[in-house]
Input
Amino acid sequence: MRWIWIDKFTDFQSGRSATAIKNVSLAEEHLHDHFAAYPVMPASLIVEGMAQTAGILVGEARDFQEKVILAKVKRACFRREVRPGEQLRYEATIEQVTEEAAMTRGRVFVDGEPLGDIDIVFSHIDNNLSGLKFPEENFVFTDDFKSLLRSYNVRAARTGAEDGPAR
Amino acid sequence: MAMSREEVFEKVKDVLVDALGVDDEEVTENATLQEDLGAESIDFLDIVFRLEKTFGIKIPRGELFPEEILNNPEYVEAGKLTPKGLSALKEAMPHADFAEFENDPDIAKMPNLFTVKTIVKYLTTKLAA
Output
């Protein structure tokens, strides 16, 4: 199973910004438990969607060589609930990438209307400050995952293809 | 950039309140970042990023929080800084107050050097340069 909470990228500017969308569907099982009589997209999964949009942007900025891990959610605020049938749009921008970490700012829209802000700090964990060692293999950006990203057109989007369908 | 010590402190306070989710009144001059304000390692990076942005300066890695001193085997022995290590740390952190730490340079106590005052002093010197 893949834990993926974005459906496709609609824009991808290498090292700068990325936009992804997510269609919220009642076919998603968890919505039936959250909540049975009143399904809403859990806010934690909206944060995850932004973490994936921004995390892939940060990973691609260093050619997927780093293991990019969410280290801290600096800010997450939402104006309202998100219901099945609505579409989320995640807009992530890189504020800063250094050897050991990256910071991103993000805005979320629902059906085109502003929904909230999510700012994140990512760690490049091989360069973490505590000197911990991690396996050599990149368990964040695996080969399978990179194939999926190719289908998202992330590479081709480096030249700035806009709003094209994922190939 | 001319900025009084008080102005620097107020801005540092805002940065720490935002970065660590602490209350205004918790951010006193002598508060330690780790123990008193609950900072974790990633927070130190976040704080450095925010300070750079707030003060419009560049803070080279290891200048404000020179933790890499601990990676030098010559500087650490049985969990304490050697005299050589202590003088290297003092040189790297002229902005810190070593009065208490140098009596017992236990590396577990090193985080106590990172206080709000340490940051304010570092910035005041840097901004005056």
In short: The longest strand of chain B covers residues 76-77. Residues 95 and 125 of chain B are 8 Å apart (CA to CA).
